[in-house]
Structures are given as structure tokens and as C-alpha cells.
Amino acid sequence: MKADFSSMKSLCLLRLSAIGDVCHAVAMVQAIQRQYPDLAITWVIGKIEYQLVKHMPGVEFVIFDKSQGWRSYGQLKTALSGQRFDVLLHMQVALRATIASMMISAKVRVGFDKARAKEGQWLVTNHAVEPLATPHVLEGFMGFAKAIGVNDLTPRWNIPVPAVDTEFANRLISGDDKVLVICPAASKAERNWLPERYAAVADYAVNQGYRVMLCGGPSQLEADLAQNIVQLCKTTIENQIGKTTLTQLLALLKNASMVIAPDTGPAHMAVTQGTPVIGLYAHSNPGRTGPYLSLQHVVSVYEEVIKLQFPDAAIAWGKRAKGDDLMEKITVESVIAQFVKIA
Fold first, then answer.
1. What is the DSSP string of 199-222?
2. I need a surface site. Which of 50, 274, 282, 289 has the fewest CB within 10 A?
3. How far apart (Å, rounded) are the C-alpha atoms in residues 20 and 289?
4. Please, what is the angle between helix 137-147 and helix 19-35, to 10°?
5. If you write DSSP's letter for every residue of 166-193 in order, what string do you get?
6. Domain count of the chain?
């Protein structure tokens, strides 16, 4: 029996991580809000990811802190005690999310279609989105909005930034500045490009009249990578690694002229701000996880390496390539070629 969503009053969204996926989910949430402006929306979200979207209007956030281990499930159950939602959008395929969903009471529980509902998700849902053979992650998320009757699935983003963070970004990047922001680090070191090649592109940009700014999180891996890039540059570049909050970084990405990044959250943050992104891809399919509005600027060797690793097999859409040296196949020249197209 086909569910009728026109009369729903409350909706819970379960998407805990990561930053890039949360950016995709924002577009879906705001598409739902356009269709159902009076709908009460609760978003169960990770602790770090919450810091990016906590100022979104019309959404109540419930933080799921995975660092608490098994206690996090009890905390979630307590936080949602007494609430029964009309609809749950179960948008994360992970055992952690499957267990978390059991703490959420909802009449209709929407999950992925059978082919994508892994990690036991299909056991805790009673309604599925339409199957999609080769979707971008954002399109897969928009399938949830479509499943509850949303007609306009065009992605748009409005992630509010506090005025003080906008002022911070405006002090660093004024309206007339030509600035290349490089967010060099992904969550796994194997997905990072080589520091000497980042440095070579940075030097090229500086010689073209651009300021170059390194941005990213506070991890030691990112700090070390940034330091290597700075030392290898023949020109002077600015290092903001670990010096910004997520909303300050979002404001900086908005003010940037363009962004270079591997498969990492800030690439998708830049997309939400309408800033062109040169994505660097080797391990994952950019058609699935690339910067959505800048797929034409992706520099990818994924297609090459995945065929080498699986020469006689049909390759699943989300298949990842493995190896510590795959990013070495991305040349400085191919990245500069995309820089020139955007500039």
C-alpha cells in the first residue's frame, strides 16, 4: 500500500556523518521544507557535523555522540523519549545507524532500496526509496525527499553562518581578492595528493596573481601535511590549517575564488557556497562522491586504476580502489589545466 505523506506533521532524519554527506543532506532537508513548510523536523546527527549546521532554521537537532560507545544509544533513546514521528528517514547505511534507528519511534520508516540497504538497514525500515543504478550520493539522498512527495528536487543550500564568522572571513578574504583555497587533507592519508605537487600548483597560482590559503581541520596529519606544503613552496602562501571552526571555514570557502581538495568534506562545503572546486580523485568514483556542481572540473584517475585492479569484472558503482600510491597518478599539469579553465 502506498503511503500518504501529505498529512504528516513530524519527521525524523537519521544521518550522523560525515561532513560531505551532511552537506548533501542539507539540500534534501531544505527541499522538504519548501514542500512542507509547517513540518516539524528533527535531525539525529553526529557531534562534529552538528557544528556545521546547528544554525539551520526549522530543524531541531539531537546529537548522537559515538565517542560514548554503547551509552550513546541510551542517551538517544532518552532524548527522544515520548516522541513518535510520522516518518523516519533512515539515511545512513552503517550498523551504528541501524542500531540507533531502533531508538527512534516512527510510523513510516523509509530506508534505501534493497540493493543499497546494507548493514541490516532493511530489517528496521518498512518503506524504501526508488532504486537508482548510478546515483551521486546527493541524488541518492534526494530520493528520500521524492519518496515522501517532494516535487522540486533541485539542490539548493542555505547554511546560516553567524555574523562574527562572516566578518572573520571578510577580514581574511575581501571581495576583490583572487584567492585559491587548498584543503589538502582527506580523512585517510592515502587519499591526499603529494605535498610537492600541491606546492607546485600553489606556486603557479601565486605567479598568476592569486593568494593561496591552506585550510582544514586541527588533526596532526593535516598540520604536518600543511607544513610540508609551505616548506616546499617557492612562493609565500598562507596557512590556516586548524585555525577555523566549521562555520568560519564555510565563510572562507564562500569568499574564495576556487578550491582544490581531494575526496573530503570541505570540497562539498565549497559546493554549498557556489564556489568552483577542483576535486582530486583516485580511490572513489567521482560520479558518486565528487563535488556535485563541479564534476566537470574533477581530476580523476579512478577510472584508470579501478580497471587495472579489476580488469575482468563488472565494477559496482560504489566500488573503491585500493592502494597507498594511487594519488601519485594525478599530475600537476592536469590540475593546472582545470585551474586555467576556472580562472
1. HHHHHHHHHTT-EEEE---S-HHH
2. 274
3. 9
4. 30
5. HHHHHHHS-TT--EEEE----SSGGGSP
6. 2
Q: Which helix (H) or strand (E) holds 100?
A: helix 95-101
Identify the domain boundary among 147, 171, 199. Answer: 147
CA distances from 54 to 21, 57, 59 (A): 15, 9, 9
Note whether residue 156 is domain-resident: no
Query: Do 23 and 66 sit in the same domain of this protein?
Result: yes
Residue 265 lies in a domain: yes
Do 298 and 172 sit in the same domain of this protein?
A: yes
Q: In what order do the strands lie in the sheet with 299-300?
A: 238-239, 211-214, 179-182, 258-262, 277-281, 299-300
The domain of 296 spans 163-342
Task: Clarify whether residues 176 and 132 are in a common domain.
Answer: no
Encoded amino acid at 211, one letter: R
Among 122, 147, 172, identify where a domain stops.
147
Q: What is the mean pLDDT of each run of 10 residues along the chain (343 residues)?
A: 83 97 98 98 98 98 96 97 97 95 97 91 95 96 98 98 98 94 96 98 98 97 97 98 98 98 98 98 98 98 96 91 97 98 97
Phi/psi for 10 (5° steps) reads -140, 145
Radius of gyration of the chain (CA): 21
Q: Do 325 and 219 lie in a common domain?
A: yes
**Cell (9 digits) for 96:** 551504528
- Tell whether pTM > 0.90: yes
Distance between CA atoms of 264 and 97, rounded to whole angstroms? 21
